[in-house]
Specification:
heterodimer; A: about 500 residues; alpha+beta; 4-stranded antiparallel sheet; 16 helices; 16 strands; globular; B: about 300 residues; mainly alpha
């Protein structure tokens, strides 16, 4: 049997076909794959009857899957390749499997493990987060420590940031999240199937369509549902509208963070306009309740089509104008340029995804590599500025706004109409695996479902792009002024709850 | 009598003018902005509140706002607003006044350090650094004015035998001084592009972060102090800009406050069209006016005849 099984995005695979290697061979296969430039999409543990197993989904230009029986403790892969570092910590936290030799084995979200074995980190979970964890510290007479959060001076989510500084210069930033851990994966495995979409949409409130779509595609594959072309068009438009609205909001916020007010005010308003377009399309400004397994709940009629294209035609020049204002100001450029740089080789090592990865020169876009819905027939985007700094991340977003607008216009020109949606009883195929990937606005969103003999969900694994990218933010701050942290943070704008699950 | 009226008017109008900046910024952002009287409402609100003190702070923390506010107010007592004779004046008062302002800052910094918060310590370090740099310019200007007028008193700068005015023989030099003083004003009053008074991001703040732990009447005193200080600097600037000296004190005052208002409007415009500097660029910006003033002072030495 081959060591890696080639799979496709959103395709049902019989679990019997997945290789089950001895651990040493599994480890070597993964390391070889990473060595050749491959990245990790999913790497997690699951329990089947009494055995705990590991499963890895990898990507190069194709998707592969492989698995093994998990030993209670194993030689860390991170010791060789950084690409596995978050995943091994997560495995340790969820199933108590210890990665020996992991350079920095610390908790991810601070909760008891699922298997009831001894805690890998020696935490007592009756204590407040982060328990008995000693933060990384730098010692010296001129070194000072700044702790920010988990409660912040703004309406944002909770997260703790610990800076080790020398004057204004940051040596190291450590980020501790987990304050919003809700047990999403457990929940998804335990509730009736009809509730799944509602939970998926709330994994990360700003990636409603991204997560909803991943789940819908996974369930459709497992239940053998067909989605008509019209519904695919609506889903694609919804995902792109979500992308535009978020990018616009963030560009405005970036501008505000450098005390350049007018574009922030303009983009604040324009973002609202795009949210309204989402409402025209799906009945909710934040994309709730639109995507369901089997189709979409709102049919895009001639009226919606006209409203959307008229409004887009009106908004696009405005957006370009405000972008000119931001990117044309020398004082703004002075702040954006060479701030918070993540070098390409670092980005590759930690597997940055989405615009953060593209800004560092990793061209990966799930819409191009693993197209779902209508993306196979749509043109790809190219990014011109890839230096890894705040300016690159902002520019990539600017380019994506225009690209996404182009995509929506192409889709609106088509005349397929979605069939009206009728909820069906979902019967999932037993003993199967499905992996779905979509390029949410923040980057690669991936869901993975394993079913047992009865076709019940045995393991539901969710991965938000923030899972990869938070490490990128920590790296961006190295040797940077501490006063530029808010700017760097906003240029990544990662999800706390998407990470905390 | 005139002096007292003039001072009272200045104190009353000091909270109004910063609202003008907010209005201008709101105009540029296409918003309505807060009402012009917003700062009076804020004052009333803050004075009716109680103050909260951290158990780790000492009496130093409570002294900060009082000293800060009083020292800023002192500046107005000695300044000839609209050319009207100030309440107090003596030879050398400028030196004392600028150091009194330094004392106010010293106590604000102490109060910030007293909280032992890492943010406030950072803000205090920045404030101390940048204002030290700005001080060089201020004293450069004073040296220049001493050379022109032979006096070290605000009252005599603008009413003595050798008046400092754009229309006098030193008018050309004053143009550079005005630019220098404007930059000092932006620095000392924590305006863009040095600091951002509107931000909520503690890590980027300079002045605002030092007063995070103050509340109620203490915060009100700090705000008042900041408004007096801004009014002092813009009054200083407008005395330099406006060359007319009319007979009627009333007309003179009107003209004077029109120019002051204009300066506030320009602050609002500057804040709307530029982003703030990266923290490591700020020292260069703050030292630029010193270079200007130094150059101007050399010119007055008439080394080449």
């Amino acid at each position: 049997m081959d060591k890696l099984l080639h799979i496709r995005n959103g395709e049902k695979v019989n679990r019997a076909e997945i290789p089950c290697l001895p651990f040493s061979q599994f480890r070597q296969t993964l390391l070889d794959f990473a060595e050749e430039g491959g990245q990790v999409v999913q790497f997690f543990a699951y329990q089947e009857s009494d055995a705990v197993k590991l499963l890895a989904v990898l990507r190069s230009d194709r998707l592969f899957v492989t698995g093994c029986e998990a030993p209670q403790s194993f030689d860390s892969l991170t010791a060789v390749s950084e690409k596995f570092h978050m995943f091994e910590r997560e495995i340790g936290e969820q199933y108590g499997l210890k990665a020996e030799g992991h350079p920095w084995l610390k908790m991810v979200r601070y909760h008891k493990n699922y298997s009831g074995t001894a805690d890998v980190f020696g935490n007592d979970y009756s204590q407040d987060i982060p328990g008995n964890y000693p933060y990384f510290t730098v010692e010296g007479e001129t070194v000072h420590e700044v702790a920010v959060g988990p409660v912040h001076a703004g309406i944002i989510e909770p997260g703790h940031f610990r800076f080790q500084c020398c004057g204004e210069r940051v040596f190291h930033l450590e980020i501790q999240l987990g304050y919003q851990h809700r047990g999403v994966e457990k929940l998804l495995q335990s509730v009736p199937l009809k509730r799944l979409p509602i939970i998926a949409e709330t994994i990360a409130g700003d990636t409603t369509i991204g997560h909803g779509l991943c789940q819908a595609q996974a369930l459709e594959a497992l239940a053998d549902l067909q989605v008509d072309d019209g519904a695919r068009v609506v889903r694609t438009i919804a995902l792109e509208l979500e992308r535009i609205a978020n990018h616009i909001g963030d560009l405005g916020a970036l501008s505000l963070d450098v005390a350049f007010n007018p574009p922030a005010a303009y983009f604040g308003r324009i973002r609202g306009e795009y949210l309204n377009l989402s409402q025209i399309l799906g009945g909710s400004r934040f994309g709730r309740g639109l995507v369901r397994p089997g189709g979409v709940t709102h049919v895009m009629g001639e009226e919606q089509r006209r409203l959307l294209s008229d409004k887009l035609a009106e908004l696009t020049p405005e957006v370009e104008h405000v972008n000119e204002l931001i990117f044309g100001s020398p004082s703004v450029q002075a702040r954006f340029d060479n701030t918070g740089t993540v070098r390409r080789q670092d980005a590759e090592k930690i597997g940055l995804v989405g615009y953060a990865g593209r800004a560092s020169g990793l061209a990966y876009d799930a819409r191009v590599s693993f197209p779902s819905e209508c993306y196979a027939e749509l043109p790809a985007n190219r990014n011109l500025k890839t230096e890894g700094d705040v300016c690159s991340r902002a520019t990539v977003r600017r380019e994506e706004i225009m690209h996404s607008t182009g995509l929506i216009n192409l889709l609106l020109a088509r005349s397929q109409e979605a069939k009206s949606y009728t909820p069906e009883e979902l019967n999932l195929a037993p003993q199967s695996l499905v992996v779905t990937l979509n390029e949410g606005w923040r980057g690669e969103v991936s869901h993975c479902i394993l079913t047992d003999d009865q076709g019940k969900i045995m393991r539901y694994k969710v991965k938000d792009p923030s899972f990869h990218n938070w490490t990128g933010l920590a790296l961006a701050l190295r040797d940077e002024g501490i006063s530029d942290f808010p700017l760097c943070n906003k240029s990544f704008n990662l999800s706390y709850c998407g990470f905390d699950l | 009598m005139e002096s007292i009226l003039s001072l009272c008017f200045a104190i009353l109008i000091a909270p109004l003018l910063p609202a003008v900046i907010q209005k201008v910024k709101a105009f540029f952002a296409g918003k309505q902005g807060p009402p012009l009287l917003i700062n009076y409402y804020t004052m009333i609100k803050l004075f009716r509140k109680g103050s909260v003190y951290s158990t780790s702070t000492s009496f130093v923390f409570r002294m900060g706002p009082v000293v800060g506010c009083v020292t800023s107010l002192m500046m107005l007592l000695f300044f000839p607003l609209a050319g009207i004779k100030p309440l107090f004046s003596f030879h050398g008062d400028v030196l004392i006044l600028f150091y009194l302002m330094g004392l106010g800052r010293f106590f604000t910094i102490l109060a910030a350090l007293d909280t032992a918060s890492p943010f406030e310590g950072m803000g205090a370090a920045r404030e101390a650094f940048f204002s030290t740099l700005a001080e060089a310019t201020v004293f450069g200007i004073l040296i220049l004015f001493f050379r022109i007028t032979g006096s070290l008193s605000f009252a005599e700068f603008f009413s003595g035998r050798h008046v400092i005015s754009l229309s006098s023989e030193h008018g050309a030099l004053l143009l550079l001084v005005i630019v220098a003083l404007y930059i000092v004003m932006l620095t000392e009053n924590s305006r863009v592009p040095v600091d951002d008074p509107a931000t909520h991001l503690e890590l980027t703040m300079i002045h605002e972060v030092m007063i995070l732990d103050h509340s109620g009447p203490d915060l009100a005193l700090i705000e008042l102090g900041a408004w007096f200080k801004l009014l002092f600097y813009s009054a200083f600037l407008s005395m330099l800009i406006e060359p007319f000296h009319l007979e009627s004190a009333l007309l003179n005052s009107l003209l004077f406050y029109a120019v002051v208002c204009f300066i506030y409007i320009t602050i609002g415009m500057v804040e709307s069209i530029t982003a703030r500097y990266k923290m490591n660029m700020v020292p260069k910006f703050v030292l630029t006016p010193f270079a200007l003033v130094f150059f101007v002072t050399i010119l007055t030495m008439e080394l080449v005849k």
